[in-house]
Write a structure and sequence with these properties.
Helix content: 55-70%
Strand order of the largest sheet: 1-2
Largest sheet: 2 strands, antiparallel
Number of domains: 2
Structural class: mainly alpha
CATH class of the largest domain: Mainly Alpha
CATH topology of the largest domain: Four Helix Bundle (Hemerythrin (Met), subunit A)
Oligomer: single chain
Shape: elongated
Order of helices and strands: HHHEEHHHHHHHH
Length: 229
């Protein structure tokens, strides 16, 4: 009877190959080594390798072609909001063009989310957003604490939309924020006023003002990233 395929071993294979793909050492269009070579490299069973390929395929990174090998897919076909993919990008030193692409994506999602939150947030959700802002302000000179509060702020806004699709993006948004904070921590204090404006507009139930305030908040960060590019 065949042994069980161990999830931990699968994850290790996925993590190493995924990092190599997003890091460019396995470029789009290239072909992964044959199955038996991967088994030898990782000291893994055929079942582990095949499950790892399924996971990478689900992330849009590879395409398994029977009798033609496993090909690295073009970058535009990757699932860019996948949390693992974002983490691998960050570990390899995420470049400014990718950061700006993430920031553009945030500019599509978060202003609308702020407007929905202003329309729909209950008292507890509105207070959570305000509390996160106050924690940011209180810890302005403590980067680790300030960043943690900033993350809570944006996730609280998504939760307050009461939209399950937007709420499901929390993991991806959190990963994007984590990837960006190392670069944008220098603009944190200068952007506090915009966070305050978002929190106040949501508390006052003003969707138009909440949208504009979030646009200002994200615009501030984009200006910083563009200047650094």
């Amino acid at each position: 009877m065949a042994g069980k395929v161990k999830p931990g071993k699968i994850s290790a294979v996925v993590a190493e190959l995924g990092a190599e793909i997003v890091g460019g050492s396995l470029p789009p269009g290239s072909v992964l080594p044959a199955e038996h070579e991967l088994e030898a490299r990782f000291g893994a069973s055929r079942g582990v390798v095949r499950e790892a390929m399924k996971t990478l395929e689900a992330k849009g990174l590879v395409q398994v072609r029977p009798r033609h090998g496993t090909h690295i897919r073009p970058r535009h076909e990757w699932h860019w909001l996948d949390r693992d993919l974002i983490a691998w990008l960050s570990a390899n030193g995420i470049d400014r063009d990718v950061l700006l692409a993430f920031q553009e994506t945030r500019s599509v999602i978060e202003p609308a989310a702020a407007a929905f939150a202003a329309e729909r947030a209950n008292a507890i959700e509105s207070q959570a957003i305000t509390d996160a802002y106050r924690a940011m302000a209180r810890h302005a000179n403590d980067p680790a604490s300030a960043i943690a509060a900033d993350r809570l702020f944006h996730l609280a806004v998504l939760r307050a939309t009461h939209n399950p699709v937007l709420q499901s993006m929390s993991g991806a948004v959190e990963s994007i924020l984590t990837a960006m904070f190392d670069v944008t921590v220098g603009v944190f204090e200068g952007n506090l006023a915009s966070h305050a404006a978002v929190a106040d507009a949501i508390r006052q139930g003003d969707p138009g003002r909440a949208r504009r305030a979030m646009e200002d908040l994200l615009g501030y960060t984009k200006t910083f990233l563009s200047a650094k590019a």
